[in-house]
């Protein structure tokens, strides 16, 4: 994610900021909209595809995730990040007691009430952000999936709550899509993550492929790494295949966005393949024209769908 001016935001809204008035709901909502549009490059397109009744609520949830991510990654040191994340958890707890002063939570109270969202998805995200401060390696693929259950899957669950269609069947399908997206981002950012001390490729898989810690330290691209990443890319793609039935089980107003999440994740994996898995020398990206093509493809697939404001899900 793009970096924000966290010190400035903390000075205004952080735990040690001077006493301030509680913003009105409209003011808090405007803050969340500005945050979303400033820091999420695809938000304008994504919000245009959503039913109008949901756009503000997506902004509110994005603003919560944005702040959470920044507190974890931009505070400067792990101890301070953990302290800030504990403060953010306390703000979330207060929010569920109906007490909010931070603009994100003032806006979020309204979203939580309207869509009856439990606290778990929000809290689980903070579990993952705290884990990032203490765990930089994952021994097995199952260990990594455990991380994804908190770092990625809650987002899909929140989307389902906004669509008023959350149940365990849809939740598990959304989990597959979100895990696939998280894995695709990991394989896209192997070099970037290693530069900040993190390795998400399972250590067990690295050993089986013959890719050593010394090779990692050199950023070495070789046949063992190619085979290692080839296998992990294939595993990630399997999660998109498993989750795709969710598209037809959600309200029409969400289907294009969900299809875009799936297609966008697959496009990242294809970009990795086009580089012959050499993500050390160049970060694989999905270009603007490709994104437009994905948008058209998703729209065409759902062109017969209507976009009612009532958001009634299929049984």
The stretches of 5 or more residues where confidence is low (pLDDT under 50) are 304-310
Cα-atom radius of gyration: 20 Å
The H-and-E topology, N to C, reads as HHHHHHHHHHHHHHHH
Tally the helices: what do you get? 16
Q: Specify the structural class.
A: mainly alpha
Rounded mean pLDDT is 88
The backbone outline, from C-alpha atoms, is globular
Percentage of β-strand residues: under 5%
Number of strands: 0
Helix content range of the residues, please? Answer: 55-70%
Sketch the major β-sheet. Answer: none
For the record, give the distance between the C-alpha atoms at the N and C termini, rounded to a whole number. Answer: 36 Å
Question: SSE layout and pairings?
Answer:
Layout: H1 6-13, H2 25-39, H3 43-49, H4 52-73, H5 78-96, H6 103-115, H7 120-134, H8 141-151, H9 153-162, H10 168-188, H11 190-195, H12 203-209, H13 213-218, H14 223-243, H15 252-274, H16 288-301
